[in-house]
Amino acid sequence: MNKYIRRFIFITIILSIFSSSCREKIDIDINAYKNEFEQWQIKRAESLKKENGWLTLCGLFWLKEGENKFGTDSSNTIIFPPGRSPAYAGSIFLKNNQLSLKCAKNVTVFCNDSAVSEMKIKSDETGKASPTVMKLGSLSFHVIKRGEELGVRVRDKENPPRVNFKGLEYFPIDPEWRIEATFVPYNPPKIIPIVNVLNQVKNDTCPGAIVFKKDRNTYRLDALRDEKELFIIFHDETAGKETYAMGRFLMAPLPDSNNIVILDFNKAYNPPCAFTEFATCPLPPKQNHLSLRIEAGEKKDVGRGH
Questions:
Q1: Residues 57, 276: contact at Cβ < 8 Å?
Q2: Distance (Å, whole) CA 140 – CA 56
């Protein structure tokens, strides 16, 4: 392929991106869109309030090799909220990456509605497997794996943030922020490091970038693949002011046959870390920090102050 053909192909791609990116908004039935958006907001709040939602999270404790005691006493490795269990309720044993549970005398833990006093347990393997969920009174707990570390995540269905939850705040819905963008695939897919709040690094696969135009400026976001959607972690100039300081999440449908993607920033939402200090959220990569105020989507949790 000579240089003139390569130049022609390059110019064609750039013109295609520019042309599709120039369409900042899409003609829609505004009443139907508002109704759909309101239903999305309701489901979003309900997901946070579920018994396994982020508002129930009340502890995260990293395991050491050997015995890890759990209960309300502060000497335990895994410390339950006051009044939720005996001072010592049992132990989780970690030996050669194998996990097991043993309850204290006269303490019963439930797993899949069955009472147990001893059992082998498994972690979530970073989302690749269903963890063993154990229940004790209003508490539930299971083991997560992040990097090479194993920790116990504790939930309480009577957790004050859940009980006192007043709902979510949003910018006014604005169709201007429902943008037709262009998906630019990476061939092969690019590997990008994603750092989480624990400063752990995970190399994720990025199938391509999403290019969009707003107010005559062009912006680019690297996307991750999340099952049947694209997952975007971004930071914009509202962060730390109207929105959560560390950034927000956005899901987008996979591109169509013309590599068109709909970015609806009205559905930008806060990561779990906006609601609890016990989550392990990924942070936006540097290339996804936008010099743009995205005045759309979920605002910061005022009750937590960030």
A1: yes
A2: 9
From 303, 230, 247, 290, select the one nearest 48 (Cα to Cα): 303
Q: Cα separation of 241 and 83, whole Å?
A: 37
Q: What is the pLDDT of residue 238?
A: 98
Sheet holding 217-226, edge to edge: 248-253, 229-234, 217-226, 201-214, 178-195, 260-264
The neighbouring-strand residues paired with 69 are 91
* Assigned CATH topology for domain 54-156: Tumour Suppressor Smad4 (2.60.200)
Task: Specify the amino acid at residue 45.
Answer: A
Residue-range domain boundaries for the chain: 3-28+168-288, 54-156
CA distance 25 to 33: 13
Position 193, amino acid: P
Per-residue pLDDT of 183-214, as tens digits, reads 999 999 999 999 999 999 999 999 999 999 99
pLDDT value, residue 234? 98
Reading the block at residue 172, the tokens are 């006014």
How far apart CA 91 and CA 80 sit, in angstroms, is 12
